[in-house]
Structures are given as C-alpha cells and as structure tokens.
Design a protein that fits this description.
The chain has helices spanning 2-14, 16-25, 32-40, 45-53, 61-69, 104-120, 123-139, 144-156, 161-172, 178-184, 191-252, 256-307; strands spanning 57-59, 82-85, 90-94. The protein is mainly α and 317 residues long. It folds into two domains: 31-202; 204-307, Orthogonal Bundle (Helix Hairpins). It has a three-stranded mixed sheet with strand order 1-3-2. α6 (104-120) crosses α11, α8 runs antiparallel to α9 (161-172) and α11 runs antiparallel to α12 (256-307). The longest helix has 62 residues, at 191-252. The protein starts with a helix and ends in a 10-residue tail after the last helix.
Length: 317
C-alpha cells in the first residue's frame, strides 16, 4: 500500500497540471458560443483544454468591465476586447454584435487562450519561445500598427511584454518565421484563419482612416484654391470699382466717345469676374460636399471604436 500511495503521489506531482485540468473539466460543458469560437479559431485539443479550463465567458460591456477589474485581469492595448486572469483563473470576452466587426471575438478568444498557454510554459520552453519572439520583433517585424502596440505595452506593462508578443504575433500577423509557425501548431491547426479574422475587422478601421486622410488632403487643396480665388476676386472687384468711377467721371464730363470705349472694357472685366464667381461657388460646393462625406465616414469610425471600447480597455487603431 505504501508503494501504491508513493507511486500515486509521484504521479500527481509529475502530472500536477494535467490532474488539475482533469478535475476542473470533469463536469465542464462548453457553452455553444464558446465551443464555436474554439472551432472557428481551429484550436487544437490542447488549446481547447487551455481555453476551457479558464471557463471563458462572453459578456456584455457592463459585466465584462466588472469582471476584468475584478481579480486583476489584463487590460489589452491591442485590437482585442478581452481579459485573462493569471494562473488559469478565467477568460472574459466582450460581446460584439456589429456585423462590421465580425472576427473580433474569434481573435480575442485566441489571444486570451494564448495568455493561458504562455503561463503553462516551463522555464526551458519559455526561454526558447521568448528568444524566437524577440528575434522576430527585433529583426523582421515591420507592421507599424503592431510596432506601435508593442511600444504601448512597453509603457503600460513592461513585465508582460513578451507574453503580449506571444498572443499578438500569433493572432494578428499572417506570416511568421518557420520556427514560430511550427511552435504555434501546438495551438492552431490553421493559424492563418485567426490572422484573417484580425485583418478582416481591422480593415474596417484602416479603410475608413484612409478615406478620411485622403479627404483631408483634398480638402486642404480645395481650401487653397478657394482662398486664392477669393483673393483674386477681391483684386478684380477693386479694378472694376476703379473703372466704374472713371466711366462715371467721363460721362459727367460729357466725354461720351471715351465713355463708350471704356464700357466695352468694363463689361469684359465684369464678365470675367462673374465667371470666376461661378467657379468659386463650384469649389465651395465641392468642399462642402466632401466635408459632409468625410465626416460621415469619420462618424462611422468613431461608432466602431465605441463598439470596441469601455472604461477599462484601451484600443489601438
């Protein structure tokens, strides 16, 4: 019996995490939406276990904010809306219903699962993984949005920087070095599908940002044309006024020959002035129409940002 108990205790110590997982999952049944996220993310059996051990919940904004504050959940700086409580203490995802943001829940689920996976790495594996992540970051990463996100984590959570890279690179970058691709096969049978989800809804922001930026350039050009036209019209108006005074003086002096000759020139100036006024009105109309369309797109971008924001989460776009 002593040998049996010794062997049993030894087995538990050696396989402590597996025993804990078994105990926590023995009666767990993943809710359908949670299981669907795992399927859409192509999570491996091991990744599903890590995900399910954390009893993931999809919550509305108010509940999500409370849960993420409670227990020191990680507040993400990236395009995901979720939090992970360390030591496999829970994963919480914010429900997003806007169809333009399809994919955000899938990416968030994968991102937070990977935090749980990183927690499980032994010291040897973690050193190897950290080295691969840092090498990619220092020598090959050229996505400016991702670089900006990493910079934000350097300021907000410097001690968790590589942990965040571990989640971000896997879920938001389509192509990685072969060593990292091989490593992430532990967690995904088709990692590219997760990255595609990220690209899909990130494009909803970047496409609108591009439209707004291009509109701002065009508006600046139109404004310069309008200002130049208004200045030219002011000069033309002064010339017309001066010539009108001269004509009136000629008429008053009875010099009708000079007056009649001057009228033709005067009418030509007025005609040119009216043409430029019409052109100016057209420019102003173009400017106002572009302002309206530009602001409509900017409003859409702001609405999307609000969908992915609450008091406890910062989003980088």
């Amino acid at each position: 019996m002593l040998l049996v108990w010794t062997a049993l205790i030894g087995f538990v110590l050696v396989n402590r995490q597996d025993v804990i997982d078994w105990w926590r999952l023995r009666q767990y049944q993943a809710p359908a939406p949670v299981a669907q996220l795992a399927t859409e993310d192509t999570m491996t059996d091991f990744a599903r276990k890590v995900f399910y051990v954390n009893s993931p919940e999809i919550q509305d904004k108010a509940s999500f904010a409370k849960q993420c504050l409670k227990g020191g959940g990680k507040h993400e700086q990236t395009i995901v809306i979720g939090c992970y409580h360390s030591d496999q203490a829970g994963i919480f995802l914010m429900k997003v219903t806007d169809p333009r943001l399809n994919g955000v829940e899938q990416v968030t689920a994968a991102h937070e699962m990977l935090h749980g996976a990183y927690d499980r790495l032994n010291s040897s594996d973690r050193s190897k993984v950290d080295a691969m992540l840092m090498d990619y970051y220092r020598h090959e990463l050229n996505d400016q949005r991702i670089l900006d996100t990493i910079d934000a984590y350097k300021k907000s959570e410097p001690n968790d920087l590589v942990n965040e890279m571990h989640s971000i690179f896997a879920t938001e970058i389509a192509s990685l070095p072969s060593s990292l691709e091989q490593y992430y096969k532990r967690y995904f049978t088709n990692r590219a599908q997760v990255a595609a989800f990220a690209a899909q809804y990130q494009a909803e922001f970047t496409s609108r940002q591009t439209i707004v930026a291009q509109a701002d350039i065009k508006l600046s050009d139109l404004k310069q044309q309008i200002d130049a036209s208004e200045a030219d019209l002011k000069t033309r108006q002064a010339i017309i006024d001066d010539q009108k005074i001269t004509l009136n003086e000629l008429k008053a002096a009875g010099d009708f020959r000079s007056y009649n000759a001057g009228v033709t020139s005067y009418n030509g100036l007025v005609s040119e002035y009216n043409v430029e006024v019409a052109d100016l009105r057209s420019l102003i109309s173009q400017y106002n129409a572009l302002v309206a369309s530009r602001n409509a797109v900017a409003l859409e971008a702001n609405q999307l940002s609000k969908e992915l924001s609450n008091d406890t989460v910062t989003i980088n776009q």
